[in-house]
Protein 1
Amino acid sequence: MATMSSAEPTRRDFLYIATGVVAATGALAATWPLISQMNPDASTIAAGAPIEVDLSPIAEGQVIKVFWRSKPIFIGHRNKKEIDAARAVDWHTLPDPQPDQKRVKEGHDQWLVLIGICTHLGCIPIAHQGEYDGFFCPCHGSQYDTSGRIRRGPAPLNLELPPYEFVTDNKIKIG
């Protein structure tokens, strides 16, 4: 008896290939949602993403509030009087000693960027209030100067500085 050997594909070869393609497609369709659900949610990505803020509409003496990572960020356009008041203080005598020059970017002394959360219990201070015309936390009486440094009250530390950089003279990127 002679065996037949044919170089031409048979119907059985076609069925094997078709079954393999359907199985591979099914496996891909089943694993796609599993892999996709591991990606972070769009709101999570947005919460940690850097933000850019245009400084040109902020008038001298004005403080605005923006949000980055669900935290209030105070951006203040300080006038010469506020800068001079912050620099006239003997910073060595402050509860959390830090010179004004370390709290602003060099060449941009008029812009103060702070995380607007009181370092005592996490309240949000009010700008241009208190004895030092800086920031005042009405909850427990902490008072900060025009550089965001603690001057009086129960807060142990200065208002924090977020990571930021100047993209242009009129635009900053926070984060």
Protein 2
Amino acid sequence: MSFPARLHILSRPNLNKVLIIRRGPSKRVGFFGFDLATYELTQGQWLKGKIYERRSDLSPDGKYIIYFALNGKWKSETKGAWTALSRFPYLKAIDLWAKGDAWNGGGLFLDKKTYHLNERFPHKSLYKNSDFEVKRGKIEAPIVTNECRGVYFPRLIREGWTMIKSEGKNHFFEKKYDKEWHILKRCGVNQSDQPGRSVYYDSNQLIHKNAGLILDIASDWMDFRDEKIYWTKQGKIHKADLGKEKIIDERVIVDMNEYQFKAIQAPY
């Protein structure tokens, strides 16, 4: 049985370019740069392993990525799991921090000059070639964890989401576009081991004040930009205009399902 590519998007509200983290099959992950205005796609690099997309981030200017990865090669220099700073949209590390396990890891950009390395159990610095300052330790988060949600939730809040309630292991966020439109995001945990779904997953509902539920999408990403709504579904990015009480001109702007692992050398 095959499944559509799983997509996670790293974005910044002031930037047209986003990072697509494409996963599928389960231990093949690719980085792609995509411009929401021109639809230009740049294939970055692939990893035979796992990238923890909820512990990853895009810098404020869109030039850098911080990510946490695991390939299980425990006797290697990176000890099988590591946090890296790279240039958009590539994986090749400029700063490399060996972790050796999947506890914590990853981080967030605090500004254009500083990133926060997420750790309770410390990394080992293998090399650091960037000019970024590094803050280390637990990232302040609305729930007590150093794992995926301990990085992902602060990222959501920074990008304009408001955490409105928690029900067991489900946490709900809201983003308002104006007085009429808002998105309700549910961040859940896959306890049934449902095929094709990650342990952590999101579902998003686009809601209009008068018309009610417009879209109900089981995917990580939905966001507003310039009177438009974007979302991922079945390995594709969709786009539509926000009408008076409905969405208009829905279309697929990129289909990521056709891409497969490819060895690519970073240009730096």
Protein 3
Amino acid sequence: MLTKRIIPCLDIKDGQTVKGTNFVNLRHAGDPVELAVRYCEEGADELVFLDITATVDKRKTLAELVRRIATYINIPFTVGGGINSVEDVSVLLENGADKISINTAAVRNPQLIEDLAKSFGSQCVVLAVDIKNFEGIWKVVTHGGRTPTELIATEWAKKAEGLGAGEILLTSMDHDGTKSGFAIEITKEISNSISIPVIASGGAGTMEHFSEVFTIGHADAALAASIFHFREIEIGELKTYLKEQNISVRV
């Protein structure tokens, strides 16, 4: 049985960790380097760093901050935000990222997925898919949730796999920051439609939510932010709980 992964996420704005609800109402959540070190010590399997306003502000991800974080951690490190080219990825990998996450740029130019996969390998390419439910249909949104598209979530995930994406980071904008649970049904639908790993994101509030997204939602990994940042759930305790539920995790 493949081990399920627990992944804290650092949403970065102006060099600081922030967290909001439904992608808005951001509040300060701590120093990103200190949080990264803490998660490494607590047993996180990976770490994700998203410069959440990089695309909107039309600027590059904070490569300097990426380098500072990478210096202190020894777990896989995924970085996203404002990535538009092979050159952008090269800079991030040189500064310590192990994988990169693309979203808006890939929707605008799907060829970018293939270009990055060929240049760095599929294992390096994580496609972030932000979704929102429009009258019962899950569609992709871009620019930090500000711009709706006509892309159907499941079809976009399948196309991305065909282009060479190595993982899907699936975030429900409707569930983000609500602590009401992950979007289980669409997570299950996409997980069952593709063969690459799906990281579920958006809505974690209890340990049971993680159990549900692994068992019912068939997710390969689960990502959360505020519940870890503010110590509402400790990663070690979460893994102990999941193990008791017969869910395979690394401890």
